[in-house]
Design goal:
This protein has 4 domains: about 45 residues, no CATH class; about 250 residues, 2-Layer Sandwich (Alpha-Beta Plaits), CATH 3.30.70.580; about 170 residues, Alpha-Beta Plaits (2-Layer Sandwich); about 25 residues, no CATH class. Helices cover about 25% and strands about 15% of the residues. The strands form 3 sheets. Strands 1, 2, 3, 6, 7, 8, 9, 10, 11, 12 and 13 form an 11-stranded mixed sheet that branches. A hairpin with an 8-residue loop joins strand 2 and strand 3. Helix 3 crosses helix 4 and helix 7 packs across helix 9. Belongs to the tRNA pseudouridine synthase TruA family.
Length: about 650
């Protein structure tokens, strides 16, 4: 490396301070060392200041126009024009606040929403303020969507450390395990109610909430004279004798408005004199919410006119649950070993009154008829304290619930899933008859090697984890580990007041299938809600085409993507499973140790199915009625109230527990 004398002279000429070194006197090796040292210092400064680049860019964007002509102070940081502009534009996007709207300019109306969700990615439905969770709740996602769409205007929204998390009241811990603050939501003034409170991992296809939301209905204005009389009503605001800025709104309901200036559009005024259509002219609530909700949460319908005094929880008269499982329940144990009785009900013991299913199924398969026999005992009004988890904080003393329907139902393998593809509107060819394909004969004759069933239960109300407890007992019956008569045995709370310990069924296959709101006056048990679904003809209006059920980004299009992703996973896993079983010489199925059982094999642990992805080894099976019992419900409740600060709960609820010995 060489340095010209001209460069050294120029450096000497530009030196503004006397204390700056005279580089003209330096040797070539000294100059090279000095340049290397300065480069190291510059690189060190750039490295230390890089985490603050975004913050610096945000400050520059915030102060633009006020300090644009002011030179920057402090050490200069080299930055290319492209990176600088990119950082500035990025910071502008991050700091951009959503447009605020004036709630007083809009009508509000009370509606009901029906929506569905797949629950595995969520921490249940109900949200608890101040509770930091690794997974968000369904209620939290719904609240954020309503806020983002500016459909609700709660009186107060407060989050720890100010507004955060999309500027909507807090930050939730992410699913990647990152740190965050407890998310706080507030339904004050929204007339919010919810029907079902599903637990973590549980899904719902017919969840219902009632809520007051923003409406597109034109707001009525009144002309007020100085004497205080109304002289006219119209869409144009005119004030006669009213001070400037005074509100002249007339609320249709005549009730005090808790939302500070928002009028309420009641169901009794479904049309106005200017031809307002209560459905077709309204905001497309389904489309609006589905655009901002996660893809595994979908709004299915809305009701424009819920009954008077509607409450999603207390107005519901029937809840329907389905618990899905496969047949076989898990990969069956091959060979004679699969028929060894390990803790099962012996032939001499009472197992069933139906001789058609006295034979034990292979380990992994379920006796569906025995399960159906057991499910019949559930119908009617019973005390289900032995089929639930006791929550002492609720201080529940009445465990009687009414079951309208209980059965084990088969999903038709010829139509399920995606039975809608058999409709004429979805046929593959335009001609009346489908074209003949080389695999058509196979498709017509094929039957699935695996069947899908559901434990279907309809009831007026349910206790905590009741359906999962019922499913667990039915699975024990299906495996031959318990007789169907175990169910009436556990329902007899006089004989068995204390629940035996047993594991409840897995959460993933459980679905809150539907919530029924019948007409109280007619006596019918059918749902009487006026649901408006996506794509209904009532939502269609000339020039308004964003309420379609089908098409890009629609309800069906999004749910197809959700289904297909999981279907491909199923296909790949199934093909891999078939491949693994087919490989090798098959000696594992035929060699002597399977044919000639030994005491060690006969005494191995029983594999028990609880609704999960696989059977669990639990040692030698112990019948339910021989297991350890929990304390009576009354004792559990009394023990809770004797904890510091808990006695007031029982007193408020008017329950005398002083005579109970814990």
């Amino acid at each position: 490396m060489t340095i010209s004398d001209n460069s050294v002279a120029a450096a000497t000429t530009k030196a503004p301070h006397e204390n700056q070194p005279d580089y003209s006197t330096w040797s070539q090796s000294s100059l090279i060392s000095r340049i290397a040292e300065l480069e190291r210092q510059l690189n060190s400064q750039n490295h230390n200041s890089s985490p603050n680049d975004d913050r610096t860019g945000a400050n520059e964007a915030a102060n633009r126009g006020r300090t644009s002509n002011k030179p920057a102070e402090g050490p200069a940081v080299l930055r290319t024009p492209s990176s600088s502009s990119s950082a500035s534009s990025s910071s502008r996007r991050l700091t951009k606040k959503p447009r605020d709207i004036d709630p007083s300019k809009y009508n509000m109306r009370f509606i009901a929403l029906k929506f569905a969700y797949l629950g595995q990615r969520y921490n249940g439905y109900e949200h608890a303020n101040g509770n930091v969770t690794l997974l968000p709740t369904i209620e939290e996602e719904l609240w954020k969507a309503l806020m983002k769409a500016r459909l609700i205007f709660p009186q107060a929204v407060e989050g720890e450390g100010g507004r955060g998390g999309d500027d909507m009241g807090g930050v939730n811990v992410g699913q990647d395990g990152g740190e965050g603050r407890a998310y706080k939501i507030d339904w004050t003034g929204c007339q919010y109610s919810k029907c079902g409170r599903t637990d973590r991992g549980v899904s719902a296809f017919g969840q219902v909430v009632g809520i007051k939301v923003r409406s597109a209905r034109p707001k009525k204005k009144a002309v007020v004279e100085s004497a205080g009389t109304v002289t006219g009503v119209g869409d144009v605001v005119t004030t006669a004798g009213v001070p400037a800025g005074a509100s002249t709104d007339v609320y249709d309901s005549g009730v005090g408005n808790p939302l500070g200036g928002l009028s309420f559009s009641g169901s009794e005024n479904s049309e106005t004199e200017d031809g307002w259509d209560d459905i077709a002219d309204e905001l497309p609530y389904i489309t609006i919410l589905n655009r901002v909700l996660p893809e595994d949460i979908r709004v299915l319908a809305w009701c424009p006119n819920p009954p008077p005094d509607f409450d999603a929880r207390f107005s519901c008269r029937e809840r329907r649950y389905r618990y899905f499982f496969t047949q076989p329940a898990f990969s069956p144990t091959p060979g004679p070993l699969g028929f060894l009785e390990r803790g099962r009900q012996k032939q001499g013991s009472e197992r069933s009154t139906n001789a058609a299913h006295t034979e034990q199924p292979r380990e992994g398969w379920l006796d569906i008829e025995a399960m159906r026999e057991g499910a019949k005992y559930l119908i009617g009004s019973h005390d289900f304290r032995n089929f639930c988890k006791v929550d002492p904080s609720k201080q529940i003393t009445n465990h009687v619930r009414h079951i309208y329907h209980a059965d084990i139902e088969l999903l038709d393998p010829k139509t399920k899933p995606l039975s809608y593809l058999r409709l004429p509107e979805f046929r593959p060819w335009e001609s009346e008859h489908d074209r003949t394909t080389t695999d058509q004969s196979i498709g017509d004759k094929s039957t699935s090697n695996i069947k899908i069933y559901s434990i279907t239960i309809h009831g007026s109300a349910f206790l905590w984890h009741q359906v999962r407890h019922l499913a667990a007992i039915l699975f024990l019956v299906g495996q031959g580990l318990e007789p169907p008569s175990i169910i009436p045995e556990l329902l007899d709370v006089k004989k068995n007041p204390c629940r035996p310990t047993y594991e409840i069924a897995s959460d993933a296959p459980l679905v809150l299938w539907d919530c029924i709101f019948p007409d109280e006056n007619s006596g019918s048990k059918e749902d009487a809600m006026n649901w408006v679904y996506a794509g209904d003809s009532r939502t269609a209006k000339v020039g308004k085409g964003d309420n379609n059920k089908f098409g890009l980004g629609s309800t069906v299009d999004t749910l197809w993507s959700v289904w297909r992703q999981r279907k491909i996973d199923e296909i790949l896993a199934g093909e891999l499973l078939d491949l693994a079983v087919s490989q090798g010489d098959k000696s594992a199925l035929t060699r002597g140790r399977f044919k000639n059982s030994t005491p060690d094999l006969e005494n191995r642990s029983q594999k028990v199915f609880y609704g999960g992805n696989e059977g669990k080894f639990g040692g030698k099976y112990v019948p339910l009625m021989q297991r350890r019992r929990l304390d009576p419900v009354e004792v559990i409740n009394a023990r809770y109230t004797k904890r510091p600060g808990k006695k007031a709960i029982a007193q408020v609820k008017g329950r005398d527990i002083s005579n109970i010995d814990p």
